[in-house]
## 1
Amino acid sequence: MRFLIYLITFLLIAPNLLAEHVKVIKRTEFLMGTFASITIYDAKYEKALDNCFDELNRIDETLSLTKEDSLANNINNKELSDEIFSLIEKGIYYSKLTKGAFDITIAPLSNLWKNGFSTEKLPENDEIQQALNLVNYRNVYIDRDNRIVNFEYEDMQFDFGSIAKGYSADVVFNTLQKEGVDEALINIGGNVFVLGNRDVNVGLQDPFSETGEIFASIMLNNKSIVTSGIYERFIEIDGIKYHHILDPKTGYPFINNLASVSIIGRNSLDCDCLSTAIFAMGLKDGLEFVENLYGIEAIFVTKDKKVYITSGVNLKLTNHDYEICDI
């Protein structure tokens, strides 16, 4: 039996942004259960870096489900801030768009599996069924005029963990822009956002190798890339691996031939929601779904090391064990 703790970095970043005379400033802190790293390619923006981490700490306090007094734990039938309410609406939007493949109310189920990962023990089937009774975005009632949300069942809960990193990356990106920063690299637990008009070479983590080993690279500017993969967090019991990407319909990890899905777009929150949902759809349906989304691209890696990309992706393979294929 093996328990793999959450991999901090899904992507190996190789920036080619700065001139030799520019001093780089970088800071990394542990927030939201992961590492948040911001690199700015101009040392005069130290204050901007401070402001970004002030925002990240504020978001951590607001969205934490482990802190009883956080706003995330005090939502039902209460007037909410514009920020929290808009996040909930975004979560409901993607739950509807993906027909529940992504479900913002999955917290009771994900919390159950998190406990299983920490104890290296599978949840009991009756526990899973009880949790599933609380997972359904259709049982959320929204009063937009008063910014109030009501749950059908008292123990329902939003999983802000599924969107917090993407939202945080967007907040940092916008904060840096307002501060006048031209070039920066944001990495919130693997949610990567490149700020700047010059390309950054982003290496994609090999799902079957040690952290930091890449299988391909892609050039990005002013875009985010987010990866969901079965290697990120799992338990192995009796030779069977149970990963962390859960099916809101069955209560168990999704079963398909995908090892990872990377989503590229101009909004990290969108990429966060979509990476989970599109992984859930599987290769064929996921590819078709992404091709119908404006401004979104995707990279699919299967368990037999086949790579499938949407029409706007220019990917360079660096590991010859992989091959780019067409469906």
Note: Residues 1-19 have pLDDT under 50 and may be disordered.
## 2
Amino acid sequence: MLIDNTDFYDIYNLIYFCTACLVVVSALSSEIKKDILLQNELGKYLVVFPLVSLIFLVGFRGYDVGTDTRNYHNILWNNNIEIKFFGEFLFDLIALIFRFFNLSFSFFLFFVSFLFFTFVFKASKNYTDFFKSNLFITFFSYMSFFFFLSMSVNVIRQGVSLAVLLLAYSIWLKKGNISKIYLLLLLALSFHLTSIIPIVIFIFSLITKKYRMIPLLLLFYLTSILLSYFNFGFLNISPIILEILDGERRGDYLSGDGAEVYEVGFKPNFVFFNTLFLCISLYVRNKLSNPDLIIQYNILISYYIITSIFLFMAFQLAFSDRWGLFSWFVIPFLIAPLFYSAFIKGSIRIHYVLMLILIYIGFNFYA
């Protein structure tokens, strides 16, 4: 029996509440008993509860949960699929394999759910191992943000693609196998071609890491807010980009189509949200005690600033939230060192956990 729309969100809230209770208890123990190493180790086991729960919840959701779910059921199960082994072929190929073995669409959704949450979990584990911070709270931070659930039920292909990129980044951070990284990049592009945008931005951030780019990027960041406020953005330059794209389907992201259905224009809530976590990341950067980690963290901040600029310049367009995902999906990594990393100077940190809970409550019950 599949989980209908109402039950789905009730169960998700229940999973979140139970996870939040465990996270608060763990954080209090770290604050009071100072057993940070023990709690960080326990977190590697406690994270199994939300991980497995979410895989099954999202995997066995009803077809009325999320805008993409029913659309993909119609496209992938009610129509003939023609595979063209270039571009975004992987999602269709997986569906074709499941159909070949007469497996239902629900099994397909479960498999995609398993991929998405497993990639996020593995990437978070690699990252928290690198910063020696709490994996459980880091995964909980993903659950606290409005975009996380949307990535798993609304923009499914882009969600899986970004999760793959996150894993590739975490492997690169730990100086892992370069062939595996290239394979993951190809995998991400095979799910969703827009992954080329974060890849190019990250490469730029990596190349410029030797220069003091952050002050200049902050200036561009503020300028982009002003430009978007006065309704200047990608739509003003889209004819140039569309000519380069030469009619490719991704050009629809720059065409302004759908403005009559989706809210377009300056979004102060997105500006506030991104700026809040930019300020927090700059705070984390100043608190890091390891010079090598500061260099790596600077790359991530640079990436976040540039992708935030892209979001602000996309306010004129429908689906600007999809541009927002490029910056939002790294926010848990930006704040992960605050979750009892050995490399962060400072003591009391439980207020950051409480902040996550308040964000979840605010977006889900009052937004």
Note: The first helix runs from residue 5 to 32.
